[in-house]
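Recall the central idea of this unit: under ordinary conditions, the amino acid sequence of a chain determines the structure it adopts. In this exercise we apply that idea directly, starting from the sequence alone.
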Amino acid sequence: MRTGSNGEYTLWPLGYPEFPMPQRLRAEQHAGRVTMSCQVSDIDFAWQLAEVADGTAITVRVELPEAEAHRLDGQRELITTSLAALADLAERT
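Accordingly, the structure predicted from this sequence is:
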């Protein structure tokens, strides 16, 4: 990954796709929300954290354009894997 300015960064994923993927990151600290937007496929990932009585609730919203609808199952897998990794990291710290 290479960072740029104004929340922009570029990913070089392993495997698919085999080309750089420019992204944009927006953080809304007051709302506990981080949004990552793929500049190639126009897919937005919004992660929101909220305090609950016994910990933290995590809500993830993925918006993808109709042209990317065929990727929905893969995006669900990606989010499931990401949430598990985040929970594991939180438990270790």
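The two ends are 24 Å apart (CA to CA).
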